[in-house]
Amino acid sequence: MSADTVMRPTAVLGRPPGRWQRANKATLAMLGVGVALFLGFGIAAPNFLTFTNLSNLATQVAITLIVAVAMTFVISTGQIDLSVGSILAFTATCTAEMLQAGWDSSVVIVVALLAGLFWGAVNGWLSAYQKIPPFIVTLATMSVVRGLAQLWTKGFSVPIDARLFVAKLGDASFLGLSALAWIALATVAVGAVLLSKLPFGSYVNGIGAQEESVRRAGVNTARIKMITLMLTGVAAGIAGLLTAARLGSGSANSGQGFELTVIAAVVLGGTNLFGGRGTVLGTVIGALITGVIANGLNLLGVSPFLTPIVTGLVLLAAIWLNLRGRAMADLFAHLTGRS
């Protein structure tokens, strides 16, 4: 038996899925929600649809999207990573501290990425090879990593000299979009190819759906699961570097609640919270929804303290749809006669 055999169950059934089955109904539904929110805020807030605000929205969403693309792989395998906000804070403070100490920007960028990779590898090794549930592992590292950042900085923000390359990166733009937005778009492109066009993506979804079958096909499932957590570590490292660049300082308090926003973006987009189905395009839609909510409420003058409440409620609704979506989709397909 080959790995490809496990990845193509429809071939065994002898009947290819119809267009309705192939479509990700949750993603399509969230696309509709996103369009409705976009139009609604466009009507309620005259400044919402201006180029300046939309460019600003792209920048606001960029850091979330970079990590959410990586989180799509983690959740698709049936895991979770709660430590991304803390890794972001750790790499942001590392970046600022090293730049203040006179390190070259190119070295600082490499070290920041390696720091993210290290914490991702720690999460992956403990959960995939030591069989500790990833929820527990990443909950622990969430506390440890942020604690280290706070111990290092003693709770103070560390400023970055505006003349340095990293600081200039935070303000750079091209064709009306910030450098952060372009980096996010590149991340989306790489993630989409990796998940939908390469065997790695098939293994990721296969592990989330039927891990034992994938393992029996000769795939090292522990290694795949560890790699996905390393991806979120690197992505959070990039996010920390870009956060420091954008704000002009590094703080151990950065990224508070960031993991909720990232997970919300992934689940809102239609990735199954329990694994087996991931969609990078859906994650883009989910990240835009979270960004549009925050941006639109801000333009309407609503208290910023309301934003996490709205995000949490939307996430709860998305999880409910995740649980009920299959039954609802089957019922709709039956009523409409689609196959």
TrEMBL record:
Organism, scientific name: Streptomyces violaceusniger
Mainly localized where? membrane
- What topology does it adopt in the membrane? Multi-pass membrane protein
Q: Which GO terms describe its cellular component?
A: plasma membrane
Q: Mind listing the GO molecular function terms for this protein?
A: transmembrane transporter activity
Under Pfam families, the record lists:
BPD_transp_2
Q: Where would you find this protein in the cell?
A: Cell membrane
Name this protein carries in UniProt: Inner-membrane translocator
Q: Which residues cross the membrane?
A: 26-45, 107-126, 172-195, 226-245, 257-274, 281-299, 305-323
